[in-house]
Amino acid sequence: MYRTLDAPKIIDTIATLQTRIGERFPDSGLCRVSGELLAASRESQKRCAWIQKPQILLRAGVGFVIAVIAVGLVETLLAMDFGQMKMGLGDFVQILEAGMNATVLIGASILFLITVETRIKRARALKAVNELRVLAQVIDMHQLTKDPERVLGAWTSTAHSPKQTMSAFELIRYLDYCSEMLSLCAKVAALYGQSFPDDVVLNSVNDLETLTTGLSRKIWQKIMILHRFEGVSPIQG
After folding, report:
1. For the chain, which residues make up each domain, given as ranges?
2. What is the pTM of this model?
3. How far apart are CA 219 and CA 172, in angstroms?
4. Residue 161: pLDDT band by 50, 70, 90 thresholds?
5. How confident is the model at residue 145 (pLDDT cuts 50, 70, 90)?
6. For the purposes of burial, counting CB atoms within 10 Å of the CB of 178, is it exposed (0-12), middle (13-18) or buried (19 or more)?
């Protein structure tokens, strides 16, 4: 029951998070980014379903091409009259070498055809994970200028300093939302690894999880500074 990720529940969690962000920061860029995350999570459900589904037409096409290659090879062998062929050792070596080269090429071609479906699915999964990686970087950009010092008053502004309009409590909620979104980015990516347990895809998913964990760690350092110096209660909402 709890050994697989449930895509609908992840989508519901993201939708709830977007509602929470919209209630507290209705006109913020973070609210719009949460909408993008929700859209990506809904797309992931459809993409994962496609990846898990056997592509019958593609497999049939590959099977047909392999059958044509096999028939052509058999016809070529049958057309050769080995009984009337007279050859020396040098001729035999040349024919053997040519046969081995042809076998390697045909084998490589068949292997290429057999793995077409896997490579297509892998490409789609990697593209989706990369989109989530970019989204994680966008989330990090939104918290980049949200420094505790700006709220605590331990800084001097310049003409181009970012405007600070949040209270300590609001800043904590903003940063906490960013951390939650990063975590959910990794969960959505994990759906692709669950649907398509390919080594390349799993490595990409793990890399994204490492990235989001590192970004979230920086955010929580800011939150802990605010708790320590401002004494703000970690109220959820």
Report:
1. 7-54+122-153+164-230, 56-116
2. 0.81
3. 10
4. low
5. confident
6. buried
Decide if 146 contacts 175 (C-beta within 8 A): yes
User: Both tokens of residue 66?
Assistant: 């392999």
Q: What is the DSSP string of 21-86?
A: HHHHSTTSHHHHHHHHHHHHHHHHHHHHHHHHS--HHHHHHHHHHHHHHHHHHHHHHHH--STT--
pLDDT of 83 over the 60 cut = no
Which residue intervals of 159-198 are DSSP H helices?
168-195
Question: Do 171 and 147 form a contact (C-beta atoms < 8 A)?
Answer: no
DSSP element (H, E) containing 88? none
- Per-residue pLDDT band for 98 (boundaries 50, 70, 90) equals low
Q: Which residues of 26-39 are buried (b: 16+ CB within 10 A; e: fewer)?
A: eeeebbebbebbbe
Sequence-distant (6+) residues with CB within 8 A of 181 are 17, 30, 33, 34, 37, 139
Please name the residues in contact with 51: beta carbons below 8 A apart, sequence gap of 6 or more: 121, 124, 125, 192, 195, 196
Fold adopted by 7-54+122-153+164-230 = Glutathione S-transferase Yfyf (Class Pi); Chain A, domain 2 (1.20.1050)
What is the model's pLDDT at position 166?
78
d(CA 95, CA 6): 58
